[in-house]
Amino acid sequence: MGLLTIGAFARAVGLTPKALRLYDQVGVLLPAAVDPESGYRLYDPEQVPLARLVAQLRRLGMPLAMIRTVCGLAPAAAAEAITAYWRQVSADTAVRARLATVLVDHLSGGSTTVSSPPPTLAVRYASDCQTGAVRDSNEDAAYASQRLLAVADGMRGTGGAAASAAAIDALRELELTDAPAVELLLTMLAGAVADADRTVRGLATDDHQPVTTLTALLRSGSQLALVHIGDTRAYLVRDGEVSLLTQDHTWVRAQVDQGRLDPAQAAAHPQRAVLVRALGAGGPVEADLALRSALPGDRYLLCSDGLSAVVDRAALCAALGAGADPEQTVRELMELARAAGAPDNISCVVADVVAV
Question: Is there a contact between 252 and 260 (Cβ–Cβ < 8 Å)?
Answer without folding.
Answer: no
